[in-house]
Design a protein that fits this description.
- It is a single chain.
- The radius of gyration is 26 Å and the shape is elongated.
- The protein is of the alpha/beta class and 508 residues long.
- The relative contact order is 0.09.
- The two termini are 28 Å apart.
- Strands 3-2-1-4-5-6-7-8 form an eight-stranded mixed β-sheet. A seven-stranded mixed β-sheet has the order 10-9-11-12-13-14-15, with helices on both faces.
- Helix 5 links the parallel strand 5 and strand 6.
Length: 508
């Protein structure tokens, strides 16, 4: 099957932000689009708003006036659902209510041709459930855009139990023709993005609850060390805690209380208090006039004196830090062959976190002055990392590590001695959930990574990141987390175990 021909009429139901955005995307691709909303004047107002927004882009030379005129001329108001009689595709973007949606599609089936494809932009309702009761459920598919639809590239093409593969292929090709990055997904709770993204919020919420670090420090580490666009606390403040908490509860309930998706009591308190984030003026941060955002906790450097560094064993991803030290003129000797993998900085032993707490690892491996460093997206560029230390590590040894990192432009935040630190723990859990999504046939390896990169702007797909760190290393981190907490929440995915035993990566 190929993409819908540009001559085919597209119908969009719902003239809110998503519906109007989807209509704009289809119109920009060259289709005539009929936009319907049961609120009087809503569709016309939405088209006017699209025109205003596009006109601003003319001023910024993103479009020409002629292009805007053509796009707007492709947008038409539908007076009723009867105007969709000649459509080749109808996309619904209305309230997240099963009964309302099913009623709309039931009416559409009596109006549209038998070749018309019906799609829902739902982010949380089962496509199989929505199609139940339709005369032709095989032509019903999920077409989940992300807000704002004209800008965000991802479209999840979601197949229900009886969705025709040919229909899914047509929607996939159509989304690609519209300039999007489509991915196939099965109709399971949360689809890809809303399922795989849960640990991004959940792990930081748990670290805050355990007083590993404050919100500003955790946000900064996730951004500056992890490479994410926003930290979890500022992002949930932006999304709205009522919305984010509701999605988490929905996924948790849909998976029969699987504790991987357990909601946070901290976030529940915010919702109960009406502290919903930016829209209410208060969340994890204050947004009232005159309020200032707190700064992350950064350790002071006492000096920049050079110190002897010795690389021991295979440093893996931490070798990027050695490259940075050498580039700054700091000598790094190669030590004797060792069963341990770490970097000696003065009297301190600096090692990449493997999921164990620093004191636990120091006791187990008899390492003196052990300091653990968190994962960074790129040690050659990062400006901020987290460190933790064993209870036996001296202040002098720890400070030498802080000074050494400061001398190459890396700020340090000390966090409580906790399993997996901050970025490593988050990435390992994202990779674990992504792995389970692949294992359970929700999407492919490439599909999951594409979805997370283009749907929520992750710096790397979580499975590509697992390959970079090493699948066996990710398994080690997860095993350590599960050992520390004794909870099923941190169980390693069977697919991670399988690949680790086979010495393989996800992307092969």
């Amino acid at each position: 099957m190929t993409a819908l021909d540009k001559s085919r009429l597209i119908g969009v139901i719902g003239a809110g932000a998503m519906g109007a955005g989807i209509a704009q995307v289809a119109a920009q691709a060259g289709h005539i689009v009929k936009l319907y909303d049961n609120r009087v004047g809503a569709a016309a107002a939405a088209i006017e708003l699209v025109e205003k927004q596009l006109s601003r882009l003319v001023e910024r030379k993103k479009f020409t006036a002629e292009q805007v005129q053509k796009i707007v001329s492709n947008l038409q108001v539908a007076s009723s659902l009867n105007d969709f009689k000649e459509t080749g595709l109808v996309i619904e973007a209305i309230v997240e209510n099963v009964d309302v949606k099913q009623s709309v599609f039931s009416e559409l089936e009596s109006i549209c041709a038998s070749t018309c494809i019906f799609a829902s932009n739902t982010s949380s309702i089962s496509i199989t459930r929505l199609a139940a009761g339709m005369s032709h459920p095989e032509r019903f598919v999920g077409m989940h855009f992300f807000n704002p639809a004209p800008i965000m590239k991802l479209v999840e093409v979601v197949s229900g139990l009886v969705t025709s593969p040919e229909v899914a292929k047509t929607i996939y090709q159509t989304a690609a023709e519209w300039g999007k990055m489509p991915v196939y997904a099965a109709s399971t709770p949360g689809f890809i993005v809303n399922r795989v993204a849960r640990p991004f919020y959940a792990e930081s919420l748990r670290m805050k609850q355990e007083q590993v670090a404050d919100c500003a420090t955790l946000d900064s580490l996730i951004r500056d060390s992890g490479g994410f666009r926003m930290g979890p606390f500022e992002l949930t403040d932006l999304i709205g805690h009522d919305v984010n908490y509701a999605v988490t509860c929905s996924v948790f309930d849909s998976y029969y209380g699987d504790f991987r998706f357990q909601p946070s009591l901290i976030q529940k308190d915010l919702v109960d208090a009406g502290y919903l984030g930016r829209k209410s003026g208060e969340g994890f941060y204050s947004y009232h006039e005159g309020a200032t955002k707190p700064e992350p906790s950064i350790l002071a450097s006492t000096n920049t004196a050079s110190v002897l560094c010795v690389a021991m064993g295979d440093l893996g991803v931490l070798s990027g830090l050695v490259t940075r030290l050498l580039g700054a003129g700091i000598g790094v000797d190669v030590g004797p062959v060792s069963s341990h993998n770490f970097l000696k900085i003065g009297a301190a032993t600096l090692a990449l976190t493997d999921g164990r707490m620093a004191s636990e690892r120091a006791n187990s491996e008899q390492l003196e002055n052990l300091v653990l460093i968190d994962l960074a997206l790129d040690y050659q560029k990062t400006t901020h990392v987290a460190l933790s230390r064993a209870h036996t590590t001296t202040d002098q040894a720890f400070q030498k590590v802080v000074d050494c990192l400061a001398s190459i432009g890396i700020n340090v935040s000390e966090v409580e001695d906790s399993p997996g630190l901050v970025v490593m723990r988050t990435v390992a859990m994202l990779a674990n959930e992504a792995s389970d999504a692949v294992l359970n046939g929700v999407s492919s390896v490439d599909g999951v990574d594409t979805a997370m990169k283009y749907g929520v702007n992750y710096p790397k797909g979580p499975l590509a990141w697992a390959d970079h760190i090493g699948v066996k290393y990710i398994q080690k981190v997860l095993n350590a987390l599960q050992h520390s907490y004794g909870e099923d929440r941190y169980r390693a995915s069977l697919l991670i175990k399988r690949l680790a035993e086979q010495g393989r990566n996800f992307h092969e």
